[in-house]
Recover the amino acids of this structure.
């Protein structure tokens, strides 16, 4: 669990894009006015604080003496990455910090200059070039930017007020170069931040059911997941139940009649069935039975509409009609695989000494098969259950998209496309947790079906 949570969290903080910009539609609110710029940045900082993104990432960090212990407070991800590159090159954070402040100050003052016909274009050029300073660290680009800003200031008399600030900016970068201390990057340093960090807050909230908020609409993630999880769980549990109820008798019967004509036909059919891709089968089912080119027996889109006036039987009838084709696609692959595994396990059990002994005692074929061979053949099937169990939550992305089922698979796919990472990583965490639960349940069932397996320590 610790490894899964750490991996999931590190993925969540390493993915591209800024969650605050996604929620604010990219916005610091810059429409060319200083007041709007400042208000937008303040709103950006407040939203970042509300999400807990202004905290250190982990309990501690391994870095070097050049990296300050407050760099995580910078609100803009691209700005922070650029400053880290400058630190790696020059190593003198105090001078780099002054350089960054000089860029910010010149940016605000440029926006404060009243717009007229003579300075409209130069102001835009200055603004665009200052943005390059926020994200570029190579000296060639910086020198070009300085030249462009200087030319733009000289073009408009009203921009002369920016010359002192521009001089301060050039001096700040000159101080970075002249006072460089790159050796600080080679001196290791450990910075301790305590429990008030992003990982601690995230994992403690997750354990009590608070999975954050959706970047798309601001809803709590648990509410979004609940709307989707019920459809995936319903389909998955029905599919697992049908798979085992149908596959086990087929596998046992096929093993009992090994080599017969019926066994050969069943084996061939199961091989073919298992090899069929689910998206192709789904397309065929829609075309033949879902109102495509042939029969219009089953709806092929959505989960159906129900009303408060419907009773339970009517609701079940509507749901089954819509979910029949998806359920077939969910089930046929696992049914074929489980049948094959069941057949192989029973054939192996029928060749064991204890089965021959049971036959020698005069027990009937039915008793030998179901009481002795079958029970000892369940271990591979239980192992399969551990792998199927997580699918009850994660769902099938392909099938849920084809049949437009609002389940976890479709939700995760749409969340990935929209970079709605709290939903994506909540699904990942649940899948990891259920994998562990599936393995635990399998271990317990091993001991239930086979008395020889025990997890207790025995002392002689």
């Amino acid at each position: 669990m610790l490894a899964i949570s750490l991996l999931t969290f590190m993925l969540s903080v390493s993915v591209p894009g800024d969650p605050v910009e996604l929620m604010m539609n990219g916005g610091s609110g810059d429409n060319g006015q200083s007041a709007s710029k400042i208000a937008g940045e303040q709103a950006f900082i407040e939203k970042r604080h509300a999400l807990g993104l202004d905290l250190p990432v982990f309990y501690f960090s391994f870095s070097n003496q050049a990296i300050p212990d407050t760099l995580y407070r910078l609100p803009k991800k691209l700005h922070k990455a650029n400053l880290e590159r400058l630190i790696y090159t020059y190593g003198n954070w105090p001078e780099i910090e002054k350089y960054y402040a000089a860029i910010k100050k010149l940016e605000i003052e440029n926006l404060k200059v009243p717009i007229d016909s003579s300075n409209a274009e130069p102001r835009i050029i200055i603004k665009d070039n200052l943005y390059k300073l926020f994200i570029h660290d190579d000296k060639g680009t910086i020198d070009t930017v300085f030249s462009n800003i200087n030319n733009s200031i000289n073009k408009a008399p009203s921009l002369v007020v920016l010359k002192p600030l521009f001089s301060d900016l050039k001096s700040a970068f000159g101080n970075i170069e002249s006072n460089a201390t790159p050796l600080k990057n080679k001196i290791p340093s450990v910075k301790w931040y305590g429990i008030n960090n992003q990982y601690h807050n995230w994992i403690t909230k997750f354990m009590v059911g608070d999975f954050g908020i959706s970047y798309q609409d601001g809803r709590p993630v648990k509410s979004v997941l609940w709307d989707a999880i019920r459809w995936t769980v319903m389909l998955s549990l029905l599919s697992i139940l049908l798979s085992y109820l149908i596959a086990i008798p087929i596998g046992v019967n096929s093993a009992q009649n090994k080599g017969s004509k019926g066994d050969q036909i069943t084996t061939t059919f199961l091989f073919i069935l298992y090899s069929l891709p689910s998206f192709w089968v789904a397309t065929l089912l829609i075309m033949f039975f879902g109102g495509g080119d042939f029969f219009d027996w089953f709806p092929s889109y959505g989960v159906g509409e129900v009303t408060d006036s419907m009773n339970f039987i009517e609701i079940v009838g509507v749901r089954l009609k819509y979910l029949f084709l998806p359920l077939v696609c969910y089930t046929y692959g696992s049914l074929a695989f489980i049948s094959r595994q069941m057949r192989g396990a029973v054939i192996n059990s029928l060749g064991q000494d204890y089965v021959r002994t049971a036959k020698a005692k005069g027990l009937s074929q039915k008793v030998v098969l179901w009481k002795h061979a079958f029970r000892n053949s369940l271990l591979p099937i239980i192992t399969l259950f551990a792998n199927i169990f997580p699918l009850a939550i994660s769902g099938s992305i392909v099938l849920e998209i084809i049949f437009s089922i609002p389940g976890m698979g479709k939700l995760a796919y749409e969340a990935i496309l929209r970079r709605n990472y709290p939903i994506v990583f909540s699904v990942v965490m649940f899948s990891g947790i259920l994998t562990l639960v599936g393995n635990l349940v399998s271990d317990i069932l091993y001991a239930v079906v086979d008395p020889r397996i025990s997890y207790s320590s025995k002392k002689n």
